[in-house]
Amino acid sequence: TLSDKFIEIRRINESLEQQVDERTNELKTSRDQWKHTFDTIPDYITILDRNHNILHANRAMLDVLESHRAGCRLDEPCYKVVHGLDAPPDYCPHSLLLRDGLEHTEEVFEPLLGKTLLVTVTPFHDADGKVTGSIHVARDISERKQLENKLQKTNQYNRSLIETCLDPMVSIGPDGWITDVNQALEVATGFSREELIDSDFSNYVADAGKAIAGLQQVYIDGSLRDYPLEIRHRDGNLIPVLFNATVYIDSINDVVGVFAVARDISDLKK
Q1: Please, are residues 162 and 240 in contact by the beta-carbon 8 Å criterion?
Q2: At what angle do helices 59-68 and 2-40 cross, to 10 degrees?
């Protein structure tokens, strides 16, 4: 009957409405989960279109912009929002991506934010495979850069101390090959630092067997004092020296080599 058909149609409509509601709830749940994940990532993430406009920004990015750029607007190009410029900077990885469609990574110091950032941009494609923008991820590496700069200054200071020493100094690996020297050893041997490093230490002394025995003794006792050897210059001249050596260790206390200083005793021998 017509009444039965109306009942059947209503039942079908109710079923479709239920399916739509379930699908809508699933989409909303999926969207909420994506947004939660997007906002909990500590890196600064934005999604940019081909015109450098910010389509989406996660909470970390919004927070850093709000704390450093009061009143900024996300409906403006990223180079204006983040860098305060009227055009993309020369190093802009997003511009590089738009030219070649490839992922790019750049280390950038942004003075307006007061941060050093490691920026990676990954191409974003549409259904036809065309690049429509990028996913822009910036990681704050300011603390790491500060530590690297401190380490670099410390290394420069240590190197300056080594180079100002008038006595030849050398570090030797467990295989007997040279890992580092100072300028005084270059003068004593007549060979450059580049020639000495990664070469056999025993090549530069008159008695190779005695040199090897001395190195072995350092590993046994941990140190060696006033060990007599003769450094051989490339022109054949010999320089009598007394070697003082000790083992040196890495960060986990494993012995990784020997550090030695040679005192020239030519005048004393005379």
Answers
A1: no
A2: 50
Give every strand in the sheet of 178-181, ordered side by side.
178-181, 169-172, 255-264, 238-249, 223-232
Q: Are 112 and 82 in contact (CB under 8 A)?
A: yes
CB 157 within 8 A of CB 141: no
137 DSSP β-pair partners: 45, 120
How many other β-carbons are positioned within 10 Å of the β-carbon of residue 95? 16
Instruction: Give the Cα separation of 30 and 24 in Å (integer).
Output: 10
Render pLDDT for 132-184 as a digit per residue (tens, 0 to 9).
999 999 999 999 999 999 999 988 888 888 888 899 999 999 999 999 999 99
CB 124 within 8 A of CB 152: no
DSSP, collapsed to helix, strand or coil, labels residue 80 as: helix
Residues 172-206: b if buried by 16+ CB within 10 A, e if exposed: beeebbbbbbbbbbbebbebeeeebeeeebbebbe
Top pLDDT among 242 and 39 is at 242
Query: pTM of whole model > 0.85?
Result: no
What is the Rg, in whole angstroms, of the alpha carbon atoms belonging to the chain? 34
Cα–Cα distance measured from residue 232 to residue 190, given in angstroms and rounded to the nearest whole number: 9
Q: In angstroms, rounded to a whole number, what is the distance separating the alpha carbons of residues 46 and 60? A: 10
Burial class (CB in 10 A: 0-12, 13-18, 19+), 51: exposed
**Predicted confidence (pLDDT) per residue in 182-209, tens digit:** 999 999 999 999 999 999 999 999 999 9
Question: How many Cβ atoms are within 10 Å of 35's Cβ, its own excluded?
Answer: 13
Do 152 and 242 touch, CB atoms closer than 8 A?
no
